[in-house]
Prior knowledge:
Layout: H1 2-32, E1 70-71, E2 74-75, E3 90-92, E4 129-131
Amino acid sequence: MRYLRIAGLLAVCMFCASFANAQRVAVGIGVGGPVYAGYGYGDAPACAYGYYGYAPYACAPYGYYGPDWFVGGVFIGAGPWFHGPDNFHGHVNNRFDPQHGYKGPAPNKGDKADPANHFDKISHFKGNEVHDGHGHVGH
C-alpha cells in the first residue's frame, strides 16, 4: 500500500508539473511573442551597436550599421524588433556580416558601447548595401 501511495503521489506531481509547464509556455508565447536565440520572450538583444536583422540575431560590430539606423544614439531595431517607419531603408556595411564572410570581432550581448564610437557620425562608415528594418536587402 505504501508503494501505491508513493506511485500515486509521483503521478500527480508529474501531471501537475507538465500542466504547469504547458501553461507557462502558452502564456509566455501569447503575451510576449516568440523566443529568438535564447534572448527571452520578445526581448530584443541588448547589443552595443545593434544586432543583425536575421536569426539568431547576433550582435553586430561597430560600423555594420550606418548613422541612419540610430536616433539620438539609440538603435531603432532590426528584424522582429524594428521600430522605424514602414518605408525605412538604411545603409549597412555588409563586409561586417558573417553571411558575407566576416570573421572579425563582435560585441557580446550586454556589452556597453565605447563612448568614443559615435552613432550619429561614423566617419569611416562605408555602406555598401541598403536594408529595410526587417532584414531585406533593398535598393
